[in-house]
What we know:
5 strands; globular
Amino acid sequence: xxxxxxxxxxxxxxxxxVVHSDLAALSSLQAALSENGFTPIVARDLPTALLxxxxxxxxxxxxxxxxxxxxxxxxxxxxxHLVFPRSFVSVLSPTEGDVLTLQSAxxxxxxxxxxxxxxxxxxxxxxSAAIDKIPGASRxx
Length: 141
């Protein structure tokens, strides 16, 4: 894969994918990511998310655990983990980290699970702090 092109003297933009069926949540996450230096690409459903995956390299992905049906976001998170193994893939869940949620996170290679009720700025702040602690692990090279 070739390096992304950037204007002379500037680093390539950090890309983030947000997949959520709720427009208000999607908008909040998009704004928070933009404030933290990411270029967010948003999708409200699985087909749009899959199209975005074929067009961009994502350093961060935030996926709702439920897009249309209960739990249908987990397989998408797994696909993101397989396609972008160095990226920080996280899932928003409506419930606390119960056994089934944690089992799904482990099975699908998700780095972190956040409760949907946490404000978008806090979620994105936590993700930014986490990827900054991993030297070169999620940077596009």
